[in-house]
């Protein structure tokens, strides 16, 4: 313990000594951000420079990050897979329902039900809005995708477990996730074949301020939104299936 | 005042490490890892900030207005979403550990000594 | 701009996405076939890139964003011969692991191959990139796939513990790297490695030293250098065999590769006047790692853990090679990575074979049981010789390169470290060979009595009688390849040429930022006498054989007067390796703090 505290203190000292060399906060100096701020709107007809950086200038990084998400979801699915003894007990209990005697959680109140199920619709619309407008205002595939993924969670909170399981365990979700990831890769290939460089922006750039501006930025946005939403839904399903199962098996 | 955010970043890193070292529950430990992640977010975002700068979104604002650095913001927003899934992966490991070993306490796991 | 360059990354990732979509519809055979074909295709493309890179390093700017006035707007792949070589080697080892795993994993279908292909794509991207944040992204992708692959056997709580230890320490390492990248970005405003290197110029101050320590420590955590190495043995003890092959064969070595790349492109400018301080730190750390790894290796009875600690030891030798900071030693490091990776992979494959036949990888439990698997025994024995850098193996070429480089700067004492590491690690593996394949020694033992028995569950289904060819062939092929590289004429010169390219900082910057055409000039023929090196290597091999034989015989001096303090130190060392992730992170903090303080003090003393 003392060993760690001493090490941490020295580590902190080294870190602070290094941080002293940084320009004081608020005086960002470097060329990278400034150059992009100047040229991005002119070159790509988008107004949200952050999205342009994410999906065009540094699009390959974002592809890598998206695949970290993809591999983590696949990894989570692999790690939380059904073991053989769990599959046997699945046959014994029927579809997940509130009436199961082992389930201790109380039924959601009517207020909760109304609120959560009422919010699902607006949430999905809002999520789609965020995804689609990424190149115009702060937003984009990542942010909108996470918002979209919380809609099934609201269904679960509202207590409608059958519907939740129906939505989230559908094969379509897995296909959607792979389609989102594959779509990003495919757009990159289009850039390679048509433009000589992977992920080159080869689609029509449109007019600044319109929703179809940015060329491939808009398309990649949609693919990412799909992938992030589907990925998080898969993770949610994998985790919730485990907890529901543990509860149904008598709680361990 | 202008050094303070950097000090906060360093402090978050250390406190995350402390949490990991002294943790008695793997779920708590993984969340301390998330605290460590936020240290890097604070560091990078502070580096990109510019006093008097607006957001790097030029919808309605003319191009050329003083704006903060968009690159660090782009890096961070993908990072936050992605690290959430890595945390999920580690939590899945913790969940399976609890299911089969009936404990989440690192001190109680003796299988990998020596 | 080459159109082939992005393919080693995007092709495996595309096939991984496709396989994941078709997860419920395709059978196992189809996904195995697809995975193997993809790996072969990736390997072939990387080979073609290697041939192109030998003339002039290959560049690719993603999105078509070439630099303007020295400011890099986009992400680049900069493929010099060493990078391409690392990518080819990765594909080769993944292919061996996939062929071996044709007999594995009946319960899960295609998702194993999705993770393996993601792992392959990430490692190729990691080796080929020229952008610092892109390096971090591929580091994270490599890690995410690795965590899931490590914890694959979810029914065993040790697996989960090992994977958690691995996951937590490596994620802390990743964030250390990111903090270092942040510091560099704050100073230079760039993320492209060449641009950062150029902007940093030659000024060395607290920020550059801290950034170097953070980035180096983060990658050293991946590379399992002391005191960051604790996770490696735990992860190897629990991961499935094909995954262990990749971990020890290439993933850990890529950590060293990253430090090399970052040092030579970015940090050599500021540190040029202080090379001796960096050397001192690296040679010390490498030596400690090598000795600790070797000592821990010798005391293990779990074969996979034994091999994991031998990897730690050899990574220490690689760190020494890096620390010499000369192109002859760098070439030695590259050859040693090749040689060690090949023989270590073969050793793990044989361990997997033993697990398949006998459901155990415990050395004592397997006493004498493999006496009828003599062909496998020959492969195991030969690979052990490779660990001792026996002449004829690629490791010998690597070792002689490193030691010649070290002698050239007056540090010939590193040969002693190589001897100790070689004797102890090869001796341990030879002891295993003797006990398992020859039935020598007793079934209970003094020096491994303290080691606990870790139960290794079955990984495969059939309790077969023969040895499946798909399990034996990759191991044999890898050992033959290690010998082939070791005996091939001209390989040393070619690798020295590649090393010179890697160390050429201004050339790299000119190629990347100004699109300059600077063709690769071959290294001159070197005429260093190898007689002494041959003698020492043969001596090391002989000593390893003697040690193995002694430790199996009843003459092992366990009651000797020197044995007690030795045993006490070993016992203390063992106690430190507690399996507790909090301890590991405490040592991690200590390591980073110590590196920072030592380097800062050394630099300020001059």
Quick gist of this model?
The complex is a heterotrimer of chains A (252), B (114) and C (606). Chain A is mainly α.
Account of the protein in words:
The complex is a heterotrimer of chains A (252), B (114) and C (606). With 252 residues, chain A is mainly α. Chain A has a domain at 35-81 and 117-243. Chain A is built from 10 helices and no strands. Chain A has helices at residues 2-19, 31-44, 49-57, 59-79, 84-92, 110-132, 141-157, 161-168, 171-195, 216-248. Residues 91-101 of chain A have low confidence and may be disordered. Chain B has a single domain (4-108), classed as Helix Hairpins, CATH 1.10.287. Chain B has 3 helices and no strands. In chain B, helix 1 (4-22) runs antiparallel to helix 2 and helix 2 (26-48) runs antiparallel to helix 3 (70-101). Chain B is elongated. Chain C is mainly α and 606 residues long. Helix content of chain C is 71%, strand content 1%. Chain C is built from 22 helices and 2 strands. In chain C, helix 4 (111-128) packs antiparallel against helix 5 (132-150) and helix 11 packs parallel to helix 16. Chains A and C meet through helix 1, helix 2, helix 4 and helix 9 of A and helix 1, helix 4, helix 5, helix 6 and helix 8 of C.
Annotation, overall tally of beta strands of chain A: 0
**Beta-strand residue fraction of chain C:** under 5%
Query: Oligomeric status of the shown chains?
Result: heterotrimer
> DSSP helix count of chain C?
22
Average pLDDT for all residues of chain A:
83
Q: How helical, in percent, are the residues of chain C?
A: over 70%
| Rg of Cα set of chain C | 23 Å
Largest sheet of chain C: 2 strands, antiparallel
Number of strands of chain C: 2
Radius of gyration of chain A, taken over Cα atoms and rounded to an integer in Å? 23 Å
Alpha carbon gap, first and last residue of chain A: 33 Å
Beta-strand share of residues of chain A: under 5%
Overall shape of chain A: globular
Average per-residue pLDDT of chain C, rounded, comes to 88
Taking pLDDT < 50 over at least 5 consecutive residues as the criterion, the unreliable ranges of chain A are: 91-101
């Amino acid at each position: 313990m003392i060993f760690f505290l001493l090490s941490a203190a020295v580590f902190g000292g080294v870190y602070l000594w290094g941080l002293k060399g940084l320009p004081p906060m608020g005086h960002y100096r470097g060329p990278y951000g400034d150059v992009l701020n100047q040229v991005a709107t002119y070159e790509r007809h988008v107004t949200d420079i952050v999205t342009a950086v994410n999906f065009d200038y540094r699009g390959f990084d974002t592809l890598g990050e998206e695949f970290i998400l993809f591999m983590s979801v696949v990894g989570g699915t692999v790690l939380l897979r059904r073991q053989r003894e769990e599959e046997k007990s699945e046959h014994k209990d029927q579809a997940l329902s509130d009436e199961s005697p082992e389930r201790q959680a109380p039924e959601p109140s009517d207020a909760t039900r109304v609120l959560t199920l009422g919010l699902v619709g607006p949430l999905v619309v809002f999520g789609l809005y965020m995804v689609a407008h990424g190149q115009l205002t702060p937003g984009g595939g990542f942010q909108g995708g996470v918002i979209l993924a919380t809609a099934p969670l609201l269904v679960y909170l509202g207590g409608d477990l059958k519907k939740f399981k129906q939505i989230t365990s559908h094969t379509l979700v897995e296909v959607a996730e792979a389609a989102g990831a594959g779509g990003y890769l495919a757009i990159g290939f289009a850039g390679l074949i048509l433009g000589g460089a992977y992920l080159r922006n080869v689609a029509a750039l449109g007019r600044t301020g319109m929703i179809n501006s940015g060329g491939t930025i808009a398309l990649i946005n949609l693919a990412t939104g799909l992938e992030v939403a589907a990925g998080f839904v898969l993770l949610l399903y994998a985790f919730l299936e485990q907890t529901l199962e543990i509860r149904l098996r008598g709680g361990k | 005042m202008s050094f303070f955010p950097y000090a906060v970043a360093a402090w978050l890193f250390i406190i995350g490490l402390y949490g990991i070292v002294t943790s008695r529950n793997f779920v708590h430990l993984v969340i301390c890892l998330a605290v460590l992640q936020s240290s890097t977010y604070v560091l990078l975002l502070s580096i990109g900030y510019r006093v008097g700068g607006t957001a790097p979104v030029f919808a309605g604002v003319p191009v050329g207005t003083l704006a903060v650095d968009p690159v660090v913001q782009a890096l961070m927003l993908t990072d936050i979403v992605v690290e959430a899934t890595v945390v999920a992966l580690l939590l899945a490991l913790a969940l399976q550990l609890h299911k089969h070993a009936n404990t989440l306490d690192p001190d109680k796991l003796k299988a990998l000594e020596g | 701009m080459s159109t082939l360059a992005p393919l080693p990354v995007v092709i495996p990732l595309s096939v991984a996405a496709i396989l994941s979509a078709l997860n419920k519809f395709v059978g196992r055979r189809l996904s195995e076939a697809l995975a193997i074909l993809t790996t072969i295709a990736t390997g072939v493309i990387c080979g073609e890139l290697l041939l192109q890179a030998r003339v002039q390093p290959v560049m690719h700017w993603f999105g078509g964003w070439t630099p303007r006035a020295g400011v890099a707007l986009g992400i680049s792949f900069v493929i010099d011969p060493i990078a391409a070589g690392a990518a080819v080697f990765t594909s080769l080892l993944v292919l061996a692991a996939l062929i071996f795993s044709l007999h594995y994993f009946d319960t899960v279908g295609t998702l194993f191959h999705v993770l393996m292909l993601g792992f392959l794509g990430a490692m190729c991207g990691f080796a080929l990139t020229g952008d610092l944040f892109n390096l971090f992204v591929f580091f994270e992708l490599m890690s995410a796939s690795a965590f899931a692959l490590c914890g694959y056997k979810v029914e065993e709580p040790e697996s989960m513990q090992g994977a958690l230890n691995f996951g937590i320490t490596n994620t802390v390492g990743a964030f250390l790297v990111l903090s270092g990248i942040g510091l560099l970005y704050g100073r230079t405003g760039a993320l492209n490695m060449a641009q950062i290197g150029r902007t940093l110029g030659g000024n060395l101050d607290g920020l550059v030293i801290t950034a170097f320590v953070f980035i180096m420590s983060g990658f050293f955590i991946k590379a399992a250098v002391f005191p960051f190495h604790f996770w490696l043995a735990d992860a190897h003890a629990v991961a499935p065999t094909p995954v262990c092959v990749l971990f020890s064969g290439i993933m850990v070595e890529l950590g060293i590769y990253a430090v090399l790349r970052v040092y030579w492109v970015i940090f050599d400018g500021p540190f040029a006047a202080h090379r001796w301080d960096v050397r001192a730190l690296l040679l010390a750390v490498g030596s400690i790692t090598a000795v600790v790894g070797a000592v821990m290796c010798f005391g293990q009875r779990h074969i996979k853990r034994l091999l994991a600690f031998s990897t730690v030891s050899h990574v220490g030798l690689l760190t020494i090679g890096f620390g010499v900071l000369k192109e002859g030693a760098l070439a030695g490091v590259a050859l040693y990575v090749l040689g060690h990776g090949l023989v270590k992979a073969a050793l793990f494959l044989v361990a997997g074979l033993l697990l398949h036949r006998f459901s155990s990888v415990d050395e004592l439990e397997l006493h004498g049981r493999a006496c009828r698997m003599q062909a496998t025994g020959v492969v195991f024995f030969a690979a052990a010789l490779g660990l001792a850098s026996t002449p004829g193996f690629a490791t010998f070429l690597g070792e002689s390169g490193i030691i010649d480089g070290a002698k050239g700067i007056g540090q010939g004492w590193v040969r002693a470290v190589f001897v100790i590491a070689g004797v102890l690690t090869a001796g341990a593996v030879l002891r295993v060979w003797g006990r398992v394949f020859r039935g020598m020694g007793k079934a209970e033992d003094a020096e491994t009595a303290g080691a606990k028995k870790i139960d290794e569950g079955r990984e495969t289904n059939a309790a077969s009688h023969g040895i499946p060819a798909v399990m034996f062939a990759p191991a044999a092929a890898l050992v033959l390849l290690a010998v082939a590289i070791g005996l091939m004429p001209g390989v040393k010169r070619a690798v020295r040429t590649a090393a010179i390219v890697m160390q050429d900082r201004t050339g790299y910057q000119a190629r990347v930022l100004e699109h300059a055409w600077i063709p690769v000039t071959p290294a001159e023929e070197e005429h260093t006498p190898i007689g002494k090196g041959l003698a020492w290597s043969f001596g090391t091999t002989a000593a390893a054989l003697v040690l193995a034989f002694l430790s199996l015989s009843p003459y092992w001096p366990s009651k000797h007067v020197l044995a007690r303090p030795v045993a006490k130190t070993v016992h203390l060392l063992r106690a430190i390796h507690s399996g507790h992730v909090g301890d590991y992170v405490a040592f991690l903090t200590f390591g980073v703090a110590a590196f920072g303080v030592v380097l800062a003090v050394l630099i300020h003393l001059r």
